[in-house]
Amino acid sequence: MYIIRILRITVVYIRNKKLLHPELCYTLNGIFFKVHNELGRFKNEKQYGDAIEDLLKEKGIAYTREFRLPKSFPAEFAGRNIVDFLVEKTVVVEIKTKIRLGGEEYYQVRRYLDALGCELGILVNFRRYSIVPKRILNTKLHSEYSDN
Q1: For 80-95, how does the pLDDT look when each residue is reduced to its tens digit (9 = 90+)?
Q2: What pTM value is reported for the model?
Q3: What domains can be seen in the chain, in order of their start residue?
Q4: How many other β-carbons are positioned within 10 Å of the β-carbon of residue 102?
Q5: Which of 48, 78, 107, 123 lies at a CB distance of 3.0 to 4.6 Å from 134, suitable for a disulfide?
């Protein structure tokens, strides 16, 4: 295992480790690429979400769209944090349409993983010429992947 720090974001490269939910992620990545190929790069998040939702239904994959997270502290407004997709109650999918992704988006997915107790999140930016889905692990559940 080796660790690279980019923009204060830890990217962990792991060799010979078991991937979390490999079949589901393979299917999800196929859906993301198909949507990107069909719609291109200049649609909005809702349009990509609609296309992803159609393909999830077509493949019979259980999901919840725009899942509202519970309050994280008493004074927080209800429904402030909304996950784009919660797939099979195990994988958080967050869709973005930005020129560049930074730490803010990464930490948003990490917050969602912590709040839901999920192991894995996938961050997808559809604005890029070619998409690169980012797998984000909940290192609180998998300390072997933590850099601490």
Answers
A1: 889 999 999 999 999 9
A2: 0.84
A3: 22-145 (3.40.1350)
A4: 12
A5: 123
